[in-house]
Amino acid sequence: MPVEGKKQYGDDLKSYSDLTWYVKAIEEIIPDSYVKFEVEDGTSIFQRIFVCFGACKHSYMYLRPMIYLDAIFLTGRYKGTLMVATCVNGNNGFYPFSFAIVSSENKDNWFWFLENLQQVVDGRQIVFLNDRHEGLLQGIPKYFPNSYHSYYFYHIKCNLPIGSGDANSKPVLDLFYKASYSYTPANFEEALYSAHSSTLAESFNNWVLPFKKLHAFALLDAIRYFVMNMMSERRIEGLENFNTRLTPEYEALLKENIDIGRTWNVVQSMERLYEFRSPRTHFVDLLQKTCTCHRWRVNGFPCAHACAAIQSTREDIYSFVEPYFTTEWYNRTYQEIIFPIPNYDKPKFYDPSDRVIVPILVPPPGRRRTQRMKSSWEKQKRPMMCTKCFTLGHHNRAIFPMI
User: Fold this and answer.
1) How many CA atoms lie within 13 A of 354 on its CB side?
2) Could you say which DSSP state residue 246 is in?
3) Which residues contact 162 (CB under 8 A, 6 or more apart)?
4) What DSSP string describes 293-321?
5) In the predicted structure, residue 341 carries a pLDDT above the cut 60
6) What number of other Cβ atoms are within 10 A of residue 270's Cβ?
7) CB 53 within 8 A of CB 33
8) Interatomic CA distance for residues 314 and 76, integer angstroms
9) 131: closest CA among 116, 143, 149, 115?
10) What are the b/e assignments for 215-238, b being 16+ CB within 10 Å?
11) What is d(CA 325, CA 249) in angstroms, rounded to the nearest whole number?
12) How far is it, in rounded angstroms, from Cα 326 to Cα 322?
């Protein structure tokens, strides 16, 4: 092996061995963090690592029990996959909850991820949203038998068996939207018969994009740095800028729902039960917090019909809003601190017993490509006439090659 290759391998070996130090640093510096680090017995080859910082673990009780699960393929020297679980905060923003680095996205690794996720959540029923991977379809009912299970709107939309250039693509997409946003089984069946949320996880994917080539240790530290900085910024933002009882996103939504139902005629049927026309007839049960449009129950937030009924009672409308959407709970979400982890005391060398061997590169499933995938700028487009050199080619006057 060339000298440069030996140096590269030595740097990689040092980077993966740093994980041992990093795991101990997280457990000592960031209180109540949950870390699961596994290497292969006998060979000490890196297998996988799961991390949930103590601040994220404690803040989960102030978040809606809705978790987005996704896997991001890493493009570094030793590939691998980053598995992430993200939540939604009280202002409808994404909240990175836990993550793991594994060799590949398969059933065994998803089972292992869900088993560890079980250790950092509370007993509330969880709504899981995912991309229909086999490991999640089987793992979620196994480890979270009482949870609800949904699929990514975006992934299903991209996998529809129709191209954008097809003449029927727009009607099919319209029916798909109608079915996806149906609040009753009857409406869903109607849309499905006629055809015969983009996700917050994508926000985390977009942020991780510049770091997909990093080694496991550097990637973990980059994520910790990002989460630490994000929590600090949102803590200051909530304390200084959020001056309403609800967060700005839901305060605006509440006012919009109130304005929509302001002209509706509300008739009381019995105590806490109301009927009105909007123009269709609906009834609202304030005791059960339900409406026949089903939006209150699905979204967990009073719909326009519910707001109209509450306004007619002259009761405090905020008492009918779940605490997840309040500024108070938003501030509690970010009250925990992720402490810095300085590396001034990181060892320069490790004993053979503490070394972690770089992972074995696992080829992706499926037949290997005979040709590499070209970048967008490499793809040949239709010829165009250049007004500078007056030739037919793949450039114009603006991008005329200066050679």
Assistant:
1) 15
2) B
3) 168, 169, 172
4) T-HHHHHSS--HHHHHHHHHHT--GGGGS
5) yes
6) 7
7) yes
8) 60
9) 149
10) bbbebbbebbeebbebbeebbeeb
11) 9
12) 8
Q: CA 86 to CA 227: how far, in whole Å? A: 12
Identify the residue whose tokens are 């967008």: 376
User: What whole-number distance in Å separates Cα of residue 256 and Cα of residue 261?
Assistant: 9
pLDDT value of position 238: 94
Could you give phi then psi for residue 51, rounded to 5 degrees? -135, 130
Q: What CA–CA distance (Å, rounded) separates 97 from 86?
A: 5
Q: What is the pLDDT of residues 205-263, one digit of tens each?
A: 777 777 888 888 888 889 999 999 999 999 999 999 999 999 999 999 999 999 988 88
Q: Is 206 helix (H, G, I), strand (E, B) or coil?
A: helix
Q: List 35's β-bridge partners, or say none.
A: 51
> Which conformational region is residue 95 in: left (phi greater than 0), alpha (psi within -120 to 50 degrees), or beta?
beta
Helix (H, G, I), strand (E, B) or coil at 172: helix
pTM: 0.76
Q: Give per-residue pLDDT as tens, 141-195.
A: 899 988 765 554 555 555 555 555 565 566 666 666 665 555 555 454 444 433 3
DSSP string, 336-396: S-------TT--SS--GGG--BPPPPPPPSSPPPSSPPPPTTTS----EE-TTT--EES--
Report the relative pairing of strands 127-130 and 148-151 from DSSP bridges: parallel
Residue 320 and residue 312 in contact, taking contact as beta carbons nearer than 8 Å = no
Collapsing DSSP to helix, strand or coil, 64 comes out as coil
| Angstrom distance (rounded) from CA 179 to CA 176 | 5
Q: Identify the residue whose tokens are 């490509």.
A: 369
279 upstream amide cis, omega within 30 of 0? yes
Length of the chain measured in residues: 403
* Residue 159 token pair: 């996998």
- Per-residue tokens: 341: 């982890």
